[in-house]
Amino acid sequence: MHFHDDSLFPENQEKLVIQAAPYGPEWLPGDADDLPLTMDEHVQAAVDCYNAGATVLHIHVRELDGKGSKRMSMFNELMGRLREAVPDMVLQIGGSISFAPEGEGGDAKWLSYDTRHLLADVTPAPDQVTIAINTSQMNIVEIMTDDDLEGTSIAKPEYYRAYRDMVVEAGPDFYLEHLKRLKESGIQPHFQLATMAQLETVERLVRAGVHTGPLVLNYVAIGGGFAGRHPSDLIEFIRRVPDGAVLTIESSMRAVAPMNAIAIALGVHVRVGNEDNLWRRKGERMSSVEQVEQMVRIADTLGRDIATGPEAKEIYKIGEYYADADETIDRLGMVPNRVPGRRGFMLRELKS
């Protein structure tokens, strides 16, 4: 992204889109006071975050025993209820969901099948599904402290080791098929990226015409195979993202507020919620709604406006698709692909 002399003036920045992740799939009941359990509580969490100022909802579903749901029927039910309860929110399902079979004979459908692809079949369809690019470690506890985990289930050695050793499988076999299915279902992919290598892979997908739509992504700074918290890495990632992309900053625990303060000042967007963070100050808990409210206050202090739900959908370009690689490149503000035989750096074509 290019910064002009006036790019830090809030009146020249996009209105702030606040992404809320209030379903904390890694936590168990008791780890946080605001973890939803019943379907009514799932819906109320969305309503509360929306009323506080969030316009994008990152969705997971929990069963009554407290564990993350693998049932598509649960996601279908929640999506239907959310469409009625928060019609103006961008509804985004977390793309790590691996569904399990339901009903007699269901096992056959899951044989040798990446069930994450079934996210494209959720009904009603979400606006977005998050997608990882390139297989990587996802050791979410690597940069968490003992204070971060105090009193939570992840402090138990067996849970800690499980999260320490997590891996996100996201090779070409997965993401090429997944992007195709999401497009066929009219669902926008929301890229979860952590490194420059992943960003470059996405650019290659755009230049090859595999992804022909808006580029909406999160910079995921949670450590352990993903980006860390060094501000220079954050700034460099922002600099390398195309001007026409939509970028949200995602961090973990007590780094969420300072990382997001930088994001708000620079004109990009933010994510908060108990999936990422449980704390305000050391030893002081903070709910998802309180985290949304904190972002609203920081934005107000800097003079940056908060996007409404319809404005967030417009910023995210929900429902837009482009004809081919050339149109996508043009809409994202990228320099064109190399013309065969053309030497030197490519320039944007002059408009007649």
Automatic annotation (TrEMBL):
Gene3D superfamilies: Aldolase class I (3.20.20.70). It comes from the Bacteria. Its cofactor is Zn(2+). PANTHER family: 3-KETO-5-AMINOHEXANOATE CLEAVAGE ENZYME, 3-KETO-5-AMINOHEXANOATE CLEAVAGE ENZYME-RELATED. GO terms for molecular function: 3-keto-5-aminohexanoate cleavage activity; metal ion binding. InterPro entries: Aldolase_TIM (IPR013785), BKACE (IPR008567). Signal peptide: none annotated. This is Transposase. Keywords: Metal-binding, Transferase, Zinc. It comes from Streptomyces pristinaespiralis (strain ATCC 25486 / DSM 40338 / CBS 914.69 / JCM 4507 / KCC S-0507 / NBRC 13074 / NRRL 2958 / 5647). Pfam families: BKACE (PF05853).
